[in-house]
Every structure is written in structure tokens, then in C-alpha cells.
Amino acid sequence: MRRTTLLLMLAAFLAAPATAQQPSAAADLKRVWTAMKNTIVKAADKMPEENYAFKPTPEVRSFGQLIGHIADAQNMICSAAKGEKNPAPGIEKSKTSKSDLMDALKQANAYCDSAYDALADGNLNDPIKLFGSERSRAGVLNMNVSHTNEHYGNLVTYMRIKGLVPPTSEARPRQ
Hints:
globular, Four Helix Bundle (Hemerythrin (Met), subunit A), mainly alpha, 2 strands
């Protein structure tokens, strides 16, 4: 009896990896995107309206222009990944209020969500034309995350100058 139990336990242990979910590059990329987009929205929401025009120096974009630029880039990059026309170009140049920029950012995020939702391990290497060259679908969507993260670094600096704690530096609740 003990031997049968031991053999059943061993069989179950050996079979478990076969039924466990395999790692997925597409799911990993979507998780990174989701974290990044949520962080940008939190940063944009946390900055008061009166600081959306703030520029640390005259030569750089304002906080609001950065939010508009991020939304513009997301629309442009994700439209390429989807093989569609950019749904909302010119946000950085046309919107200045916090509410308009937040709405545009959320719309760009939702548009990009559909590009990441369509991502699967089987289409990661599909060719996508962007900036005059062919790239993989995964490379294009990774570029979107990378670009958004790059500008999050700018937003962090602006927030710190204004005495605000950026979302990624906030205290986490203990579990």
C-alpha cells in the first residue's frame, strides 16, 4: 500500500510540469506594459494641474507636454503594431489641460491594450514596418514600453522638483 501511494505521488509530481502553464513571452510583455501604463497614469494624476506647464529649464518639454508626447508615441507605435492608421496624432501640440491630457493618455493606453491583447507567442516575430525599417511585432511593442519608461524617468525628476513622491517610490502596504 505504501509503495502504491509513493508511486502515485511520484506520477502526480512528474505529470505536474506537463499540465502547468508554460512561460509565455507574449504574456510577459503584456505584464510589463500593464505595469508601465498604470505607473504613467498614476504619475500624471498625481501632478497638480498648475504644474502641468512646469519646465525645469526653458529648453525641455513641460510636464504636460511629456504626457502628450507619451500618448502620441503610444498611438503611433501601437498603430504600427496593429497595422492601422494612427488614431489620434498631435496630442502634445493640441492639448494642455490636465483633464484633456489624462483623457488622451488613457485613450492611448486603451488603444495599446488592444495591440498587446492581440499579441501571442505565435505572432511575436511578425514583421512590422516602423521608422522606415522592418522590426518584429514584439520588438515594436517592447519599444513602446521602453519609450514610455524613458519618459517616466523625466516625469520622476519633475515630480521630485515639485516635492512629490513618484508612484514607484511610494511606500507599499505591508502584507
